[in-house]
Amino acid sequence: MSNAILIAGTTSDAGKSVVTAGICRWLVRQGVKVAPFKAQNMSLNSMVTADGAEIGRAQVMQAQAARVEPEAAMNPVLLKPGGDGRSQVVLLGRPVAEVGALDYRERKPYLLERSLECLADLRRRFDVVVCEGAGSPAEINLRDRDIANMGLARAAELPVLVVGDIDRGGVFAAMYGTLALLSPEDQRLVAGWLVNKFRGDARLLKPGLDMLHELTGRPVLGTLPMLADLWLDAEDSLDLTTAVERGATAGPHGRDVLRVAVLRLPRLSNFTDVDALAQEPGVLVRWATRPEELADADLVVLPGTRATVADLAWLRERGLEQPLRERALAGRPVLGVCGGYQMLSQRITDSVESGAGVVDGLGLLPVRVEFQVEKTLGRPVGEAYGERVEGYEIHHGVARVDGGEPFLDGCRVGAVWGTTWHGALENDGFRRAFLREVAALAGRDFTPAPGTSFAAAREARLDRLGDLIEEHADTDALWRLIEGGVDGALPFVPPGAPTARAVEGDLL
User: Which of 24, 118, 411, 422 is catalytic?
Assistant: First the structure.
């Protein structure tokens, strides 16, 4: 068995992460030991593995789909964009550099070697490895040093399945054009197409699918219908609206709706923290960028950010500081998580992330924050409201608490809470207890629904993805690609296929 396949996409947000997770769940149901893999991920959503490594949140979700413990090898390179056109490079779970686009380009040959080592290791330990590409494989200006798409596929001899989003339109042109822009050496690895997010009668689509097959010589291995309310971990800002702006229109047993406003910071990270709030019956979660959008909120959440000082300046420029101060004085709930918690402090000293030195915080919590060169990565466990709480932490800023009531690793003053712990709200007992107190302070007749399980809801969504592949993809053809590798794909460019453009040299 070749035991690996690469899922590429015609664009970002075409559905690569979802399809990869779906294939992982379908395979594990067949008794196959499967692992996800993404050589290079650019995302502000990350998580900490059990051994203290930081990887992309999407790969954690895919590992959950595969029912295996996530590990650094599943996402060897993670890029976390900052506020100045530079990104932090996380290699095998640890930050190693802050780079610009051209600086990063020079590191790619080395990073490809490390990624190939990780992929080879996973292929030895698992029956199947389902790899996810990044962006599009036809980004020809980046092809000569690509490490996530055709560069990886060529180096590891992986058959490639290309996913296209039909909901945004132009999917046939995108698929045909993707193949046309690849070199003959890359084209031979493209084994077929998956149409994603289809609405309507599949009979109307068939003539187009047949023509695509005729023109490219590659079959369409499935048409996947649009799935509403997946609520899976969003990887980038393209997914923000569907990932968070959701919730019930009525509270449990006809009681009040609890309204939550989440500040949509320009560089927000780990916004999956509020997903657990959004799935709670009777809780309505929405994004906010203007003062008036906070007015009727029962709870305002300041989420994590990759650039605390820069996003604090944005918050002030948008006129959001005064409404937050007024809320605190009036005893109306505010929660800060990680970077949001740092903003609530008295003072921030940052010579690491922004280089801004000493900056005044919002002054709503008795905390002083000092940024350290070494990043804190951990999986802490604690207790609050008499409930066990498990979370994870990813931050350079160290908060020193000078007063208030203890709250997880942070503190609370009145109706203002702060913690560096991500994922705390995924703990059902703690979340319900916290929402009960928020509702009481907000004067709402709201009681969280008993028995709501965030873990069970996540598992049900992953099962829906497994169903999606099992019911709408050609799983026999998928097995042939996984078992046969490149030999199961097309060994040459067939007559009638698009003319390929060879990509040579530095096209940047």
Answer: 422
- Specify the residue for token string 């993809």: 473
Task: For residue 180, give the H/E element and its range.
Answer: helix 171-180
pTM: 0.89
Is the Cβ–Cβ distance between 147 and 115 less than 8 Å? yes
What is the spatial distance between Cα 452 and Cα 391, in angstroms, rounded to a whole number? Answer: 19
470 burial (CB, 10 Å; 0-12 / 13-18 / 19+) is middle
Largest CA distance in the chain: 74
What does each C-alpha distance from 1 to 4, 58, 178, 483 come to in angstroms? Answer: 9, 26, 28, 4
| 253 counts as catalytic | no
| Phi and psi torsions of 378, nearest 5° | -165, 170
H/E run at residue 97: strand 94-99
Q: How many whole angstroms separate alpha carbon 369 and alpha carbon 380?
A: 19
Identify the bridge partners of residue 288 per DSSP, sorted by sequence position: 263
31 Rama sector, left if φ>0, alpha if ψ -120 to 50, beta otherwise: left
The residues near 177 (Cβ < 8 Å, ≥ 6 apart) are 138, 498
Sketch out the chain's domains with CATH numbers: 4-219+474-488 (3.40.50.300), 237-457 (3.40.50.880)
pLDDT over threshold 50, residue 501: no
Selection from 168, 64, 55, 52 nearest residue 459 by Cα: 64
At residue 232, the pLDDT reads 62
Residues 286 and 248: beta-carbon distance below 8 Å: no
What digits encode the pLDDT tens for the residues 274-301? 899 998 999 999 999 999 999 999 999 9
Question: Could you write out the DSSP letters of every residue in 137-152?
Answer: TT-TTTGGG-SSSHHH
Comparing 90-104, 114-128, 401-415, which segment has the lowest mean pLDDT?
90-104
| 50 neighbors 494 (Cβ within 8 angstroms) | no
Quick one: tokens of 378? 């951990």
pLDDT tens digits, residue range 204-254? Answer: 899 999 999 999 999 999 999 988 766 566 554 445 554 455 555 455 554
pLDDT at residue 494 in the model: 46
The token pair that represents 481 in the structure block:
């690609």
Q: How far apart are CA 402 and CA 390, in angstroms?
A: 24
Catalytically annotated residue among 131, 338, 396, 411:
338
Residue type, 306: R
* Residue 219 phi, psi dihedral angles, 5° rounding: -80, 155
Given a cut of 50, whether residue 1 has pLDDT beyond it is yes
The secondary structure element, H or E, covering residue 457 is: helix 454-472
* pLDDT-derived band at 335, boundaries 50, 70, 90: very high
DSSP assignment letter at 31: T
d(CA 65, CA 458): 9
472 carries an active-site annotation? no
